[in-house]
Amino acid sequence: MSSGTSSTGMTGNTTLITNIASLVTNDPSLGWGSPRSSKFENGGGSPLGLIQDAAVVIDGDRIAWTGDSREAPATDNRVDAGGRAVIPGFVDSHSHLVFAGDRTQEFNARMSGRAYSAGGIRTTVAATRAASDEELERNLTRHLDEALRQGTTTFETKSGYGLTIEDEARALRIASAHTEEVTYLGAHIVSPDHADDPAAYVALVTGEMLDACAPYARWIDVFCEKGAFDGDQARAILTAGRAKGLHPRIHANQLSYGPGVQLAVELDAASADHCTHLTDADVDALANGRTVATLLPGAEFSTRAEWPDARRLLDAGATVALSTDCNPGSSFTSSVPFCIALAVRDMGMTPDEAVWSATAGGAAALRRTDIGRLVPGARADLVLLDAPSHVHLAYRPGVPLAAAVWRKGTEVFG
Ligand code: NIG
Ligand code: FE
What we know:
CATH class of the largest domain: Alpha Beta
Radius of gyration: 21 Å
GO cellular component, one term: cytoplasm
Helix content: 25-40%
Low-confidence stretches: 33-44
Number of strands: 18
Binding site for N-formimidoyl-L-glutamate: 161, 327, 329
CATH superfamily of the largest domain: Metal-dependent hydrolases
Oligomer: single chain
Function: Catalyzes the hydrolytic cleavage of the carbon-nitrogen bond in imidazolone-5-propanoate to yield N-formimidoyl-L-glutamate. It is the third step in the universal histidine degradation pathway.
Shape: globular
Distance between the termini: 30 Å
Bound molecules: N-(iminomethyl)-L-glutamic acid, fe (iii) ion
Structural class: alpha/beta
Number of helices: 14
Organism: Streptomyces apricus
EC number: 3.5.2.7
Strand content: 15-25%
């Protein structure tokens, strides 16, 4: 029986959520030795720090206590979870939500056999440039709301559909009103305006555009891929960003083998995203470095591509995150539960590993420890599932299971 863990001295407005059949805490002290291993070596059998018949106390915007429901402290308010499961809010550490337009036709053509190509990004660039600020804002909030109703309480989002100084800075300014996890992706593709002179575009991305964008962003990203930016260009772009105080993350090894993953580890990027085509040396680098491997199965689903091998990464000891990559071209889903179901069905993950990767894993990919876990002091971001266990997220694919969502201690859906 758990005696409960608490932070000292509750001060704010307190709420008890009780009668929780199964609580996912992701507390590393509750049965999982290391977040870097899938071996569950402490005998806990799960990375999730599960507590059965549990309760949680929220104090203001923070978690104050978790433990056995019979031992919960007195609080101002009380919520009966009705014998259902509670998990941390999803941390979607990779999305592209500042865009306009639609690529239904491109998707339709793909589903009739055409291959995905990064060139489709240009369609969204044209539509995004033509859109008003209000239209971009409306689009962003619509997708955020959609994600929140499915349990996402933190999201990262990127620029990358502007590719001019003004349009990139505008995208980041709009995004920064909604999240602190904002990523400058001027290096998504070479701008159509510089198609004949990629070097001039890299100079712009690392120069004037970076100066205009850095104040709105925490991260810098680059699409390191044939048809986008090569290893040397990616290194130059990320190094320039770092010199301006931005932290690197990379779109790496999505469509083909390449230098992206090893560059990510070399530069201590927080995350290498996609990781679909990996050599043994790439897997070793991820297993031995701090860089998280963020897998984005919505992209493989929507491009009919081969799945990233999560099992291989986990067995090697890499830290794996799962995110949506929500964007109008390669992965137009805002649903983390959908990604969990795909990862379990097709990428060799257990339901427990997939839920960990979509919560604590996403937090690790953003180098955060205040989210993605329900431990005293963490941000009170929780999802009440309309199910007795988190396993239902994979067991019941396509079913909307988020019954209520709390963000920073406030019930925002339910
Ligand atoms: O992460 N790979 C590059 N960027 C996006 C796709 C963007 C698009 O096709 O519009 C991705 O999959
Ligand atoms: Fe992406």
